[in-house]
Design goal:
Blueprint: H1 3-10, E1 14-20, E2 29-32, E3 44-49, E4 52-64, E5 76-77, H2 85-98, H3 102-109, E6 121-127, H4 137-146, E7 151-152, H5 153-160, H6 164-172, E8 176-182, H7 201-216, E9 220-226, H8 232-246, E10 251-255, H9 262-273, E11 278-280, H10 286-297, E12 303-306, E13 318-324, E14 332-333, E15 339-340, H11 341-352, E16 355-360, H12 365-372, E17 377-381, E18 392-397, H13 411-422, E19 426-430, E20 439-442, E21 459-461, E22 466-468, E23 475-477, E24 491-494, H14 498-508, E25 514-517, H15 524-536, E26 542-545, H16 547-550, E27 558-563, H17 577-589, E28 600-605, H18 611-618, H19 621-635, E29 641-650, H20 653-666, E30 673-679, E31 685-686, E32 689-699, H21 704-713, E33 722-727
Parallel strand pairs: 9-16, 9-17, 10-12, 10-13, 11-12, 13-16, 18-28, 19-26, 19-27, 25-26, 27-28
Antiparallel strand pairs: 1-2, 1-4, 3-4, 3-5, 6-7, 6-8, 14-15, 20-24, 21-22, 22-23, 29-32, 29-33, 30-32, 31-32
This protein binds adenosine-5'-diphosphate (ADP).
Amino acid sequence: MSANRELFTDGPAGHIATVLLPMPLPEAFDYAVPEGLTLAEGDHVVVPLGKRLVNGVVWGLRDGAGGNRPLKPVAERLDAPPLSAATRQFVDWTTRYLAELPGNVLRSVLRSQGALQPSPVEVVYRASGTPPERLTAARARVLEVAAGEPLTAAELARRAGVSAGVVKGLADAGALLAEERAVDPPFDAPDPYRDGLALNDGQEAASAQLRRLIAAGGFQAALLDGVTGSGKTEVYFEAIAELLRREPDAQVLVLLPEIALTQAVTARFEARFGAEPALWHSALGGTGRRRAWREIAAGRARIVAGARSAIFMPFRNLRLIIVDEEHDPTYKQDDGLTYQARDLAVARGKLEGACVILASATPSLESLVNARAGRYVHIRLEARAGTAMLPVIETLDLREFPPEPGHWLSEPLVREMAETLVRGEQVLLYLNRRGYAPLVLCRACGHKMKSPDTDRWLVEHRYTGRLICHTTGFSMPKPRACPECGTVDSLTSVGPGVERVAEEAALRFPDAVVEVFSSDTAMGAEGVRELVARMERGEIDILVGTQIAAKGHNFPNLTLVGVVDADIGLSGGDLRAGERTYQTLVQAAGRAGRADRPGKAILQTHDPDHEAIAALVAGDREAFLSLETLMREQLGLPPFGRMAALILSGMDEGLLVTTAKAAAAAAPLSDDVKLFGPAEPPLAVVRGRHRRRFLVQAGRNVDVSAFMATWMARFRLPSSIRARVDIEPYSFL
Ligand code: ADP
């Protein structure tokens, strides 16, 4: 018996486990470790909480007495792979950085309860090779089906078109053999020795640089900065292959911005490595989630492709993180846990001692500044892969060529579209507005249709005939009469959404196949894949799409991109408005001419001299970036300064105002920190909850996370008021 064990049995002191629970609690709780139970840090355990038993993770172990009350004992240790030290450190780091509760961060890691148990097993049957004495037609059909892969009794019966009794009869007769199989099978191992595409010189040089980083080992960060269509994916595949050749047990995480894209990406992974990656995203069902989580935790899933939340997965041996399209705004999660997955990826890479590759054609200013400062290795790809050329970009001044009232396509664009279609090529019309019209108002009284209890216009959707709130999801059929003044047929649609532009395109080109592609076309993941496949095969002539159509796709026969409104996003209080507009337009234009035919992008604008648009046309990214950098530097905006927001919300506006005042009075004073607010934000009410915002702006060397944590501890929050801290906010609504 060890000395520790003697201490435990002989005296009042014993082993104490500090257990973190995945709940909004401020700290981990102490539990007694019962005699005979051996625990290690990171172990998954079941502990009593009040009258319930809950799952938690051992965060610390020590010897000692538990204070003046006896500690409750740990109930059980689960036989699941423990959370690695690096994963636990990442939870602690994220908690501090986001000024969050540790249990809320842990909850983002423990996303599948079922994964903590071994995979359930099911009984499957295969033909034994010995036919039964009595062979009916039904039995013969079952045996025919059973000659393929092993199947469950229900599935065998379904495919053979017989009752379950027939299958059972065959099993009893010894013609079918039963065997047990895990419901959640492991993922196939990737093969890093397969050949990839023959790389061009630029790609070869870039992958050689990445291979060197992988060979050096430890934390490394690289910015893979290559124009649209330059073949960045093939380049980072080389980094993955190099790593897996060196360390067969290594795990790789590839973060991707759009789940809709993962199908195309999955196929590319499969072609390169002979195995599908493990996928992780919010649309995954319970079984898929359970399987992916368990395989990642066990270290068996080698390549994981996921949406932003995959940064919290319980990797055992994470050696490489790739953030594809690192500039993409969807990496920022704005509700629930508020985080920027790209920033967390770099932090996790440091803690894991892993390599981090950020890839983009339009890197964020944050990453470019890091690259210039030498914190990231800057790897550039200047030309498109293969024979493809970058598209020519032109502006179309809407002041000179205004479309007719109620129309959105200007004549010169329509002419270009006609020429493109005559050549048998495809057109993408890009407009980042879902639905038919962004506003519905009454011609008689001027009433604007708004979402109930929310300060938002309702967006008209013609396909579904409904008015929808894009903030809360509220929807209603479009009424015939104005709810305000009662006038019938007075509600009119104002402004264009993709559905309306598609309507106009179809009127202009009655023989063309026109389709809408936006994230809410009620088509589901399967429908999205089908639409993308039809576009790839050239079965669609004109695709009218939001940003989901502008990201990452490869449509070889697409040669004309028309940006319906290049000015959207240039106004508004967002500090990244110019940068984001630039990125979006480059990405949209970048869909054109990706194969052997030259492409063209036409931007309809009222402001052709705006620096983002002028730089785009001139192909002068540096000019745009230096202006943008100068502006941010002078104003002390990120990445040259730090920011944080505090958002308070509550049903009772009076109480909210009082709380906001108290919060303002409690803010710690500091010469390096400027505090703005409380202010009523543009989105002042959501689902009946009133909102107030504070903005904290500080020098680069100020620890805004610590500032926010100190501040939050200095005022009392009434239970009906919610507070959300947003470190480095992207949304100012
Ligand atoms: P990016 O992510 O840089 O926009 P992709 O990696 O999607 O570019 O590549 C663009 C297209 O070029 C893809 O269809 C890809 O298969 C093709 N491609 C990439 N590298 C090569 C290469 N070396 N030879 C031929 N085709 C390539």
